[in-house]
Amino acid sequence: MMKRFFIICFCFILIVAVVGCKAKPSAEADKANSVFQATIIEIKDGAMLVKPIDGYPEAEYAELINVMIQHMPSPPEPKAGDVIEITYNGIMTEENPPSPCGVEKIEIVKQGTQGSIDTPVQVNDEENNLFKGELIEIKPQCPPAYGITFRLPKDWVYEVVQSDDAPTSDLVVSIRPVFPGTEGEITLQHCDGFGVCGTGLVQKDIVFNGHEAWQGFYDGQPLWSFIELKDPKDCVIVNSAENWYEEYEEEINQILSTVEFVYYENNTSVAEPTEQSSYLGALSEDEKQKILEFAKGWYAENFPNYKDLVFEFAKDSAFGYTQYPQYKPGEIIILRVTSEKSFADSVRSCFIKITDSGYEVFNEGT
Fold first, then answer.
1. pLDDT reported for residue 31
2. What is d(CA 354, CA 114) in angstroms, rounded to the nearest whole number?
3. Residue 314 near residue 10 (C-beta atoms within 8 A)
4. In a 3-state reduction of DSSP, which class is residue 209?
């Protein structure tokens, strides 16, 4: 009888042990080093946006991961398309995209090219934003509404169609290169209730010029059909340029890297806000203090080695940022973060998004 009881207890313990080994690691799990490989999608502000390679647990945790450039041998310098191997403590942050904690080593295991990346195009390369093209500003006919700004190289043309039905004010800007027989175009749209057909549609999460977005592909085609921003809503880029996209892909990416959907309260863009019309003037002192306290707590938890940080609100015109020109209360707040001790020659930026439940860090970097 005792022998039978012992066997039953032993089997129960064995089952519990096996199940425990298969459980998904959490933030409280064993902090032994973990290693995964990923393809670099883009590099910006001292960080790499990477796509984990299938087969690693990190690929199931998140489609895209943000990795700070640290503990990397140089040369070679990392570039988009390279495959890197990251060694870290096995814990990921809960932000979107998440970041690995306790990174000990990052190595380039395979060099690639931008064209080899089998992922949605990421079009917020700061260098591309500086290409020499004419700055085009399309204002809405019936503000308050969204307009569009972008840069257009020579030998390209654009057409604008707007509705007068305030407050909808649908806006469609069609762009294409100039040459006889051009069929198709790239359109930049702010339309109320953009709709898609779900048949044969695959959507991927991407980052478009700092904004979370979906990129849509139809019927297994490698060329994307549309990019729809999650916030601000109803802002869409539609691609019907399949006849000439490949030939002009570099210029298309340059143009898209400069596209911004700009909110206009009136005929004056909010992209260059005054103290009264910007989010900074709209926030109360109590709200500002809450945001600063949130940022201090977030840095203390995620970057404990950063000491003596100084936080201040930054205007886009003063701080050099134009990625979020549609400043309205309740959207994106930019903080300028400096320190005299931890990284004396570095100025960091912290983008904080106001949510229904409070605040969250939307992006962070040098």
1. 46
2. 34
3. no
4. coil
Domain edges within the chain: 34-116, 128-264, 279-365
Q: Quick: pLDDT tens for 189-200.
A: 988 777 777 778
How would CATH label the architecture of 128-264? 3-Layer(aba) Sandwich (3.40)
Q: What are phi and psi of 118, to 5 degrees?
A: -90, 60
The average pLDDT across 316-336 equals: 50
3-state helix, strand, coil in the chain (%, to 5): 20, 35, 45
In the chain, count H helices and then E strands: 6, 19
Q: Per-residue pLDDT tens for 289-308? A: 888 899 889 988 888 877 77
Phi-psi region of 317 (alpha: psi -120 to 50; beta: other; left: phi over 0): alpha
> Which has the closest alpha carbon to 41: 29, 53, 33, 49?
49
d(CA 280, CA 318): 13
CA distances from 230 to 137, 145, 194, 223 (A): 22, 17, 12, 21
Q: Which residue, among 50, 31, 45, 46, has the nearest Cα to 88 in the 3D structure?
A: 31
pLDDT of amino acid 174: 93
Q: Is pLDDT above 50 for 215?
A: yes
**pTM over the 0.70 mark:** no
What distances in angstroms separate CA 308 from CA 68, 302, 340, 347, 351, one per listed residue? 21, 15, 7, 13, 19
| Cβ atoms 217, 225 nearer than 8 A | yes
Q: Cα separation of 361 and 274, whole Å?
A: 24
**Edge-to-edge strand order for the sheet containing 105-110?**
65-68, 47-52, 34-44, 83-88, 105-110
**What is the CATH T-level fold of the domain 34-116, as seen in this structure?**
OB fold (Dihydrolipoamide Acetyltransferase, E2P) (2.40.50)
Mean pLDDT of all residues in 70-95: 85
Residue of 208, 207, 156 whose CA lies nearest to 185 = 156
User: Which one-letter DSSP state was computed for residue 298?
Assistant: H
Query: What percentage of the chain reaches a pLDDT higher than 90?
Result: 14
